[in-house]
Design goal:
Length: 286
């Protein structure tokens, strides 16, 4: 618990470092630029496709007819944009997390290592392509989990529990691998992740709950969809900061745990080698 709290406040302070702020701009430019281009070309076709799909569902048509009858017909005009935004936000989150994991996390880990653990040996247990493969594989599994549990989000308690659990697992798997890839060998990384699985998953869940904050921005501005391009940029920036904080938290925790593990291994007495008898000891006793 001490290690968890210590790494938390250190990560919080590191978020104010000018280098961290500058590093957060690259994922922001890529993700926000890509989302803006996709919105420019596919916003209207996406709305038309959603409207056609909703019109073909009898249940949705009945609900909309009831809303018209009670004087809430204005909801019909914002339903399709809300659906498009609701489907787009998880994709934006996943893309931002991937960008932070691949572009920011190695640099943030080097920053933490240089300032706190300058003597920690780098054993290069995994390369860039291995980290990218792990991130893509875990992101695909998380996306499938999101799609599979989407109907359960209609149950209010589960809607508050399932997304943080999925984001927490995804962050725990991606960031744990990335922050240990350069400094720990494969055996050390597996041992550390197994030994600290629950604290690492707790960090992932905590930052997953923080990741829900940008979504509240969309919910609060659902009726002001005219500001969607601006909200996309702001939400991507907020997601970038949340995931950067998550990477720093994982880096401080995992590198401190690795340093402690190596210090404990160095302090433990090594097995004494078998004694080699001297020539005098080899002589038979009279």
């Amino acid at each position: 618990m001490t290690l968890l709290v210590d790494s938390f406040w250190r990560a919080t302070l590191y978020c104010l470092h000018p280098r961290v702020v500058l590093l957060s701009l690259l994922p922001l430019l890529i993700a926000a630029g890509g989302a803006g281009l996709l919105g420019w070309f596919f916003w209207e076709p996406g709305l038309d496709a959603v409207r056609d799909a909703l019109a073909s569902w009898s249940l949705v048509a009945a609900v909309l007819g009831w809303l018209d009858a009670v004087g809430a017909g204005g909801f019909r005009s914002v339903l399709a944009p809300l659906v498009v935004v609701a489907l787009s936000v998880p994709v934006i989150v996943l893309v931002t997390l991937l960008l932070v994991a691949t572009l920011m996390t190695p640099a943030l880990t080097r920053l933490v290592a240089a300032r706190r653990f300058p003597t920690l040996e780098r054993r290069h247990g995994a390369g860039l392509w291995q980290g990218l493969a792990v991130s893509l594989g875990c992101t695909l599994l998380a996306l499938l989990a999101l799609i599979a549990t989407l109907p359960l989000w209609l149950v209010p308690p589960l809607a508050l529990v399932l997304p943080p659990l999925i984001w927490g697992w995804l962050g725990y798997r991606c960031f744990s691998f990335e922050v240990l890839a350069d400094h720990a060998d494969a055996a050390e990384r597996r041992a550390l992740v197994a030994e600290h699985r629950w604290p690492l998953w707790g960090i992932g869940i905590a930052t997953g709950l923080l990741g829900a904050a940008p979504s509240l921005l969309w919910a609060a501005s659902a009726l002001a969809l005219v500001f969607a391009p601006l909200l996309i940029v702001v939400s991507v920036w907020l997601y970038t900061l949340v995931f950067a904080f998550s990477a720093l938290w994982f880096a401080h925790y995992a590198l401190a745990a690795l340093a402690r593990r190596r210090a404990a291994a160095a302090a433990s007495p090594a097995a004494a080698p078998p004694a080699v008898p001297t020539p005098l000891e080899q002589l038979p006793t009279p």
